[in-house]
Amino acid sequence: MNGNPVEPYRRQDIYARDGGVCYLCGVHIPEAEFTIDHLLPVSRGGADAPSNVAVAHMACNRRKWHRTPAEYFAEEA
User: Fold this and answer.
1) What is the rounded distance in angstroms from the CA atom of residue 75 to the CA atom of residue 25?
2) Given this model, what pLDDT does residue 2 score?
3) What is the pLDDT of residues 44-72, one digit of tens each?
4) Which of 21, 17, 56 is nearest to 38 (CA)?
5) Pick from 60, 63, 64: which is nearest to 27 by CA?
6) Looking at domain 11-76, which of 2.30.30.40, 1.10.30.50, 3.40.190.10, 3.10.450.50 is its CATH number?
7) CA dihedral in degrees (53, 58, 60, 65; nearest 10)?
8) Looking at the predicted structure, is the pLDDT value of residue 77 above 90?
């Protein structure tokens, strides 16, 4: 472990908080198909905490990979 806090959260709570919308593409995701993405990747020092996660499509999550949202949007533009 990298020393970053791990705060328990329920996937369903994150889905509800985000309204079931992928934060990367803005499209609704059926509840059975969403993934949780770390805004600041854990591999880059991000915490596994509710404030650092968001709902994303699997394909969007994979495309973002280890980048921050700012890096992703700058490179995808």
Assistant:
1) 14
2) 59
3) 999 999 999 999 999 999 999 999 999 99
4) 56
5) 60
6) 1.10.30.50
7) 70
8) no
